[in-house]
User: Fold this.
Amino acid sequence: MSIEFSGFDDIKNRLDKMSKAAQELDGEQEVPMSELLTDPFISKNSNFQNVDEFFENSGFDMNTEEEFAAIPDDAMDTYVAENSTFESWNDMLSSATQEYVAKKLGL
Assistant:
């Protein structure tokens, strides 16, 4: 008597894909802000529909990386706390990163 299991191949394939994705994510990565702060993420976690609206309504000058970097941390944290479900900019980025990694791993 033999028993056939057909689901194990599917599970193995999914685990193989997850393993490959995890290897690709290993180490330090540079991920564009647009891939972290997606429209669904922003609309779910803020008062805005997309990241452009979120930044445009901030009142900060963000036309260049230098201008963005010059925004005081406490001012950005206050803006995020008042306009999103997060208490700080770092909390927002951390959550977005977790969602990004989960999506890349196929979870």
Notes: The chain is about 65% helix and 0% strand.
